[in-house]
Every structure is written in C-alpha cells, then in structure tokens.
UniProtKB/TrEMBL annotation, chain A:
<dbReference type="InterPro" id="IPR007627">
    <property type="entry name" value="RNA_pol_sigma70_r2"/>
</dbReference>
<dbReference type="InterPro" id="IPR014284">
    <property type="entry name" value="RNA_pol_sigma-70_dom"/>
</dbReference>
<dbReference type="Pfam" id="PF04542">
    <property type="entry name" value="Sigma70_r2"/>
</dbReference>
<dbReference type="GO" id="GO:0006352">
    <property type="term" value="P:DNA-templated transcription initiation"/>
</dbReference>
<feature type="domain" description="RNA polymerase sigma-70 region 2">
    <location>
        <begin position="19"/>
        <end position="80"/>
    </location>
</feature>
<protein>
    <submittedName>
        <fullName>RNA polymerase sigma-70 factor, ECF subfamily</fullName>
    </submittedName>
</protein>
<dbReference type="GO" id="GO:0016987">
    <property type="term" value="F:sigma factor activity"/>
</dbReference>
<feature type="domain" description="RNA polymerase sigma factor 70 region 4 type 2">
    <location>
        <begin position="114"/>
        <end position="164"/>
    </location>
</feature>
<dbReference type="Pfam" id="PF20239">
    <property type="entry name" value="DUF6596"/>
</dbReference>
Automatic annotation (TrEMBL), chain B:
<feature type="domain" description="YCII-related">
    <location>
        <begin position="1"/>
        <end position="105"/>
    </location>
</feature>
<dbReference type="InterPro" id="IPR011008">
    <property type="entry name" value="Dimeric_a/b-barrel"/>
</dbReference>
<comment type="similarity">
    <text>Belongs to the YciI family.</text>
</comment>
<dbReference type="InterPro" id="IPR005545">
    <property type="entry name" value="YCII"/>
</dbReference>
<dbReference type="Pfam" id="PF03795">
    <property type="entry name" value="YCII"/>
</dbReference>
<protein>
    <submittedName>
        <fullName>Uncharacterized conserved protein</fullName>
    </submittedName>
</protein>
C-alpha cells in the first residue's frame, strides 16, 4: 500500500466511529447542523491531505475533533454580527471543551443525534436520509441513488429536514422515562427500514452494514432495552445469508436451495446468543427467534417449522398486520401441510390488505404447487412476477413458474 | 419557544370518550405552569368572515376561507422549551382525542 492509500484507509477507519461523535458534539455546542457537518467533513478532507505526509497521528479521533472544532471557531469568529450571541456562546463552549470529551458525554451525544434524526415529527423517509447522512456519513449522492432521486433533490430534502428540526423546535435530546418507551420503537423502525433498504435485492448493500453498526451502538448505549438487542440479533441472522443469496449470475437463490456452508456462522452464533438472552415479549424478539430457527437448521428439511409457526402466532397477537398474517400462513403451510397454509392465507386476505401484493400470490402459488396443481401454480407465479418491482425477484418467480 | 396550538375537529375521533381528559384541568394546569399564555374557543365557522383586497378593492365574503373537514374551533398560545414539551401539552388536551391539534411554532425572525 502507498502512504496515500494507507492514510486514506486510516481516515476511513477512524471516521466510522469519530464522525458521528464529532458532528454530535458540534451540534450540541453550536445548535447548527449544517455548520457541524461542514466542519466535520473538512476535518476528514484535511486528514486525507496531511496524514500521508505527516503520518497518522497517535490519537486520530482526537486529531479530527480538534481540527473540526478549530474550523467551527474560525467560521464563527468571522460570522456576521447578527449571529453574535450564538457565536459568543459557542466560542465559550468550544474553548472550554476538551478535544476528546470523556465517557458519558460521548455516549449522550451520539444517542442524542440518533433520537433527533429519528424524531416522529420528521417524515419517515427524511428520518432515514438524515440518519444515513448525519450519523453514518454516507455521501448524499449514494443516498439519492437509493431513494431514486437526483443528488440535488436529496440535498434539498436534507436541508429542509435540518431546517425543520430548528424551526419546529425538535429538541436535541434523548427522551427519558415513559417518553423513551414511546420513542424507542420509532428509532428501531428507522434502523429496520435502513437495513431493509440494504438487504432488498436491488438495494444498497452498504446500508445493511450501517444498520448493523447503529444497532450495535444502540445495544451498547442502552443495554437495558431488549428490543434493541432483538433488532441487532435479527439483522445479524438475516445478514448471515448475504453470500448465499445470489448465484454466479446474480439471480436470487431461495432459502431452501442456499448452500448453508456459505452462511456467516460467526454472525449466526452471535445472533443466537443474543436471542437466548431475550425476554418473551416484543415484536422484534419474535422475528429474531424465527430467524434463529432458520439459521440453525442443518438443512431446509430439518427446519423446525412448528416452532416457527408458534412464533408467528405470538407475533400476530402483537402485530395483527396483513404481512405478518401472510408469513404466518407460510409457516403453518410448512408445519401442518399446504391446506392449513391456504386456509390461513384466505383469512389473511379477508381485510383486503394483501390485494395486489405480489408476495401473497407467490405464497399461494407455492402452497398450490405443493398440493400438486402445477398449472394453477405456474399461472400464479407468473401473475406475481408481473407485479413485483425488482428484476432479481422477477427472474426468481418466472423461474419457479417454469420449474413448478 | 412560542407555539400557536390550533384546535381542530376531525372526522375520525377517538372512539372512547370516557377516557378523554378534562379541559378545565388542562387549562388550570398549563396556566399555573406558565405554559399557556392565552387561548379561546371560537364561534362556529358559520360566523366567520373572509376579507381580501384585490387591486385595491375590498372583498368581503361570509364563511371560512376554505372548505375543510378539519375546522379550527379554538386556539391556545403556548410557551414551551421545545417541540417535545409542546407535544406533551397537546396530547393532554381533550381535543387531541376528540379532534386534532396542530402545533405551529412562531417564525424565528432573528435568524
């Protein structure tokens, strides 16, 4: 590796942990999101410039923090008189702040940032985009690609969201007591959406890694919240299959045909350990248990479908949504035969919530195929393929329509 | 921060009126805490008058300026530390249950 490449790698490795801490601390002190992000970005750019020449400093995170903080001071000292009051307050706080704030303060800053980015008064898509940009430091152009909008549209959206935080008076704080119980599910939902965007066949794989990293951070910072642990377990168990989900041509490989030796067994072991420590309740806890059943089965045939069907029954009690009902029908179909699955599928469809949902057609196709009606199954698989969005999913469904 | 709390009706209210909080208690608590600066119930929309000036000409018409299902029936002016506090105040108002509440911060003209 050249010095430049080695320095770039060191900057990247430091930034993963240091960037959100720097942004969070600067927002706390200045209350200005744009300024905090710009100065943190400039510190990274300065490191890329200087580290190849001067060598990587002994405390790279502290170096970045100092550079970013001095940059904020520069900007504020040159700021117009109208902002004098903010300037004076911030300069005072920044001068007093140590380059590397101690224990509790660091923890609080990052949590504060997560809870503010995931505030329910922001639109859900804005929460995901802000989290990616501010906490994970994902470049705006990559977020734009995942949201299927132009970079300038995403820049505008992020600016609007940050303006809204200031204008609406969204606090920069971790809620406490009963408010924390109300708000945590919203934060976990943003991480879940982030993970899904990374895990979907046509998604940005890096987002799944970011979601796992954030879930780990939450678990470390809030060890007393079992749903955060459950979410991390769920991510690890699902993500363990990433290398086995596609064949050499990029086609999706269904779970029962995946090569289980390609699964990430270290991730599975960690997920299973987390699941073992979970208390009974909580929707993510049930999802994680189901994922653990799949991940620990020696083969598709040896999957404990009765246990999975039980878990879905419990989950359906907590979350009686059409999609949970659909998955419950699948599990019962494998545990107790296709007729049981079709009867629950009919129940799940009653409210109309699954109308036009391609996965419901695919599930019906699979159940019908297992009852021996191949023609009807093929027609249903084709109908599902017509409605599905991603190319990889469409190919997988058409493949099923042909092979029966 | 100052928030204008617009109290509105809603076509789909909460279905358990026996659980709704008492407005007198709400007013007393928030007045005592200094969070409610003032507030009032408004006469029905049928008493509203809309005023416009176009090309220097006064146009006066009856009724509210827009046909909406969610009508403003009252307001309270709040002084709160931030949005989370304003949300806590709003959720304790009976019309958050029987109708809906919109929180509008005052524009910050110092920026």
């Amino acid at each position: 590796m050249t010095d430049r490449a080695a320095a770039a790698a060191a900057v990247a490795a430091t930034a993963v942990d240091a960037y959100p801490r720097i942004v969070a601390a600067l927002i706390r002190i200045t209350g200005d999101w744009g300024l905090a992000e710009d100065c943190a970005q400039e510190a990274l750019a300065r490191a890329l410039d200087r580290w190849p020449v001067e060598g990587v400093p002994a405390n790279p995170g502290g170096w970045l923090m100092t550079v970013a903080r001095n940059r904020v001071l520069d900007v504020l000292r040159r700021a117009s008189v109208e902002r004098r009051k903010l300037r004076e307050l911030a300069v005072l706080a920044l001068t007093a702040a140590t380059a590397e704030p101690a224990g509790e303060e660091v923890v609080d800053d990052r949590l504060r940032l997560i809870f503010t980015c995931c505030h329910p008064a922001l639109a859900i898509q804005d929460r995901v985009a802000l989290t990616l940009r501010t906490i994970c430091a994902v470049p705006t152009v990559e977020i734009a690609r995942a949201f299927l909008v132009s970079e300038s549209a995403m820049t505008r959206r992020l600016t609007r969201a940050k303006t809204r935080i200031a204008d609406a008076g969204i606090p920069y704080r971790v809620p406490s007591g009963p408010a924390l119980r109300e708000r945590l599910p919203g934060v976990l939902a943003v991480l879940y959406l982030l993970f899904t965007r990374g895990y979907d066949a046509d998604g940005e794989p890096a987002f799944a890694d970011e979601a796992i990293r954030l879930a780990r951070l939450l678990v470390r910072l809030m060890p007393e919240q079992p749903e955060a642990s459950a979410l991390l377990a769920l991510f690890l168990l699902q993500h363990s299959r990433r290398a086995a989900r596609r064949d050499a041509d990029g086609n999706l490989v269904p779970l029962d045909r995946q090569n289980r030796s390609d699964w990430d067994h270290a991730a599975i072991a960690e997920g299973v350990r987390l699941v073992a420590g979970l208390p009974e309740q909580g929707p993510y806890a049930w999802q994680a248990r189901i994922a653990a059943c799949h991940a620990t089965a020696a083969s598709a045939e040896q999957t404990d479908w009765r246990r999975i069907a039980d878990c879905y029954d419990q989950m359906f009690r907590l979350q009686p949504t059409p999609v949970v009902a659909l998955n419950r029908a699948v599990a019962h179909g494998y545990a107790y035969g296709p007729a049981a699955g079709l009867s629950l599928l009919a129940e799940a469809r009653e409210g109309g919530g699954l109308d036009g949902y391609p996965l419901a057609l695919a599930v019906e196709a699979d159940l019908v195929a297992r009852q021996g009606d191949r023609d009807r199954a093929a027609a249903l698989f084709r109908a599902a393929a017509e409605r599905v969005h991603g190319d990889a999913e469409r190919r997988a469904l058409l493949d099923r329509a042909r092979s029966g | 921060m100052k928030y204008m709390m617009l109290v509105c009706t809603d076509p789909e209210p909460d279905s358990e009126p026996q659980n709704h909080p008492d407005v007198e208690v709400w007013v007393a608590e928030n007045d005592a805490a200094g969070r409610r600066l003032q507030g009032a119930q408004l006469a029905p929309a049928s008493a509203a008058t809309t005023v416009r000036v176009r090309g220097g000409q006064l146009l006066v018409s009856d009724g509210p300026f827009a046909e909406v299902k969610e009508m403003i029936v009252g307001f309270d002016l709040l002084e709160c530390a931030d949005l989370d506090e304003a949300i806590e105040v709003a959720r304790a108002h009976p019309m958050a249950w029987a109708g809906r509440i919109e929180l509008r911060p005052f524009a910050d003209l110092d920026q």
